[in-house]
Write a structure and sequence with these properties.
- The structure is a homodimer.
- By secondary structure, chain A is an alpha/beta fold.
- Chain A has a single domain, classed as UDP-N-acetylmuramoyl-L-alanine:D-glutamate ligase (3-Layer(aba) Sandwich).
- In chain A, 34% of the residues lie in helices and 23% in strands.
- Chain A is built from 10 helices and 13 strands.
- In chain A, the strands form 2 sheets. In chain A, strands 5-4-1-8-9-10-11-12-13 form a 9-stranded mixed beta sheet, with helices on both faces.
- In chain A, strand 4, helix 2 and strand 5 form a beta-alpha-beta unit.
- In chain A, helix 3 runs parallel beside helix 5, helix 6 crosses helix 7 and helix 9 crosses helix 10.
- The radius of gyration of chain A is 18 Å and the shape is globular.
- At the A-B interface, helix 7, strand 13, helix 9 and helix 10 of A face helix 7, strand 13, helix 9 and helix 10 of B.
Chain lengths: 315, 315
């Protein structure tokens, strides 16, 4: 079947990042930027939905377009772009946010242009649940497959709206710490089961350097089985230069791979494979600041790493 | 080739454990108890080396003997047995030690009886590096394969002696937090490489609920490759009743499996398989207090779980 396009809504940011080794400014950032770029390695076009200010660096836009990402859904505002400045500490897991400039995001109402509103694979990358619901309302494909991510901020300040989003999802992606917080249990298997009970047909808990867990099926009487659970490792990296965007990359690669299958009803095995693609692409993102590594990949780079990953985890 | 016996030295304890759900007293505990019992599912006899006091419960001894564990190497002292009392908190990872009674351990000098001194698979379960070196001095098999574990306490108060142990090892097993502390890096791939540089020919970093990493080969110019690195997941558990001894179980099962191969020179693939056996047995230990689950397994239980584990992690 011919590949399907993907629509990705979320934030587009200007990032300033400090790590124990180096510092970089005016970087391409934002959940949707990473996700769209990652998806572009599996299917094109990828329709980006977001908002940028008058000050957004043109070369970032150019790079995205060169990867088959369309920007018709990106609103250009007279305000200043959303910006994030943060610092990673020695272990590269803990980070401190120095400054968040919401700017154009503050009053953003997501609008999906008619020309891309029927895109069947819908990615709600990390943004406010209100924005995610607006994007869903503007996405009119039927059938469709909806995938969403979130973050701790929304669990804390928009919990009810986030639950509204969850009811609409085919696949919900969340990281480990957030999953524990959101479900009130430290046991991740139980957390996955409880997330399924909130509505999504599939749930992925991202474990950072430890991989990911996929849960699927009816939450009532859910049990670990070959039809309901998959455990993927992460590709081993001896150096992490900048983990920003790894989770967004995972999300985008996963969605792009699913879209490349040319359908909207996926088997459990399709989603297993998608988790692996997500893990592979996320590992590249960690190797350089921002999207520098991600944007320069070849299909051979990806295939080679996937093959190595297979051997490193097989027994 | 006929299976080889294993010799396991370490602590034999009386444990008192509190979890958020329950409490249990006078439990079989200690690094060597778990390791010997786990090894017994793969090869017999398993020669236990340790020390107990006059107050040690006879039914624990009986249970070990019923599993093919010999106690000729266990010294019976007139003092009181080593005892540990601790409490697990909500997340079942953090624990508080309420009381450690070293008792008979305090002045223990490991003696290996002549009849078992030539056992070729030697396990130095967690005990002081001094005790580990004493056990090594009493183990005269040639060729032999020596596997050791440790804990944060020895990294802190017996660092130099621990380094002496490391130079003698074929395989060193350590948990994630200790590996980071011991090597001064948060990156586990780098930590593994640095541990190899301390002497052991193989290193395993245990990741608890996230599995394990195996490193092998010359530490100079070491790189991740199919010949030098293996990443195993952990079997998913929706409820952890008591994680005490899971790491010791991992160690013992791994050693028992290797011994069952009837040789002392192992291929990388042999050790990969051993890591999987360790993960499987450790998952059982977590399911009930102390060795209650571990001691009641059948070979079919183990085979069934291994098969399920394979399917849950394959792609």
């Amino acid at each position: 079947m011919p590949k399907l396009p993907v629509i990705v809504g979320g934030t587009i940011a200007i990032d300033n990042v400090i790590t124990p080794q180096a510092e970089a400014k005016d970087l391409l950032g934002g959940s949707a930027s990473y996700a769209a770029l990652a998806a572009s390695y599996f299917t094109r076009p990828v329709h980006l939905v977001g908002i940028i200010g008058h000050d957004y660096p043109q070369h970032h836009i150019d790079m995205l377009e060169a990867h088959g990402v369309t920007l018709d859904g990106v609103e250009r505002s007279e305000g200043e772009s959303f910006t994030w400045s943060g610092e990673y500490h020695d272990n590269m897991n803990d980070r401190t946010t120095h400054r968040v400039g919401l700017n154009v995001l503050e009053s953003w109402q997501v609008k999906v242009p008619a020309a891309i509103s029927t895109t069947p694979i819908v990615v709600l990358a990390n943004m406010s649940p209100d924005n995610q619901l607006q994007m869903l309302a503007g996405s009119t494909a039927s059938p469709r497959f909806v995938i969403a991510d979130t973050m701790d901020l929304w669990i804390n300040i928009a919990n009810e709206r986030l639950h509204d989003v969850l009811k609409e999802l085919d696949l919900f992606v969340i990281n480990e710490g957030e999953a524990r917080e959101f479900t009130g249990t430290a046991n991740l298997i139980l957390a996955g089961k409880r997330l399924l009970a909130k509505g999504p047909r599939n749930v992925i808990i991202k474990l950072g350097e430890f991989g990911a867990m996929l849960f699927t099926g009816d939450s009532e009487n859910w049990e670990v089985s070959p039809q309901t659970f998959f455990r993927s490792a992460a590709f081993p990296l001896h150096e992490v230069a900048d983990p920003t965007g790894a989770g967004d990359t995972f999300l985008g690669a996963l969605a792009g791979y699913l879209a490349s299958l040319g359908k909207t009803d996926f088997s459990f095995d399709d989603i297993r494979q998608a988790v692996v693609k997500g893990s592979i692409l996320a590992s590249f993102t960690c190797e350089e600041f921002s999207t520098r590594k991600l944007q320069s990949l070849t299909h051979e780079d990806i295939a080679t790493r996937e093959q190595l990953f297979k051997v490193l985890t097989d027994w």
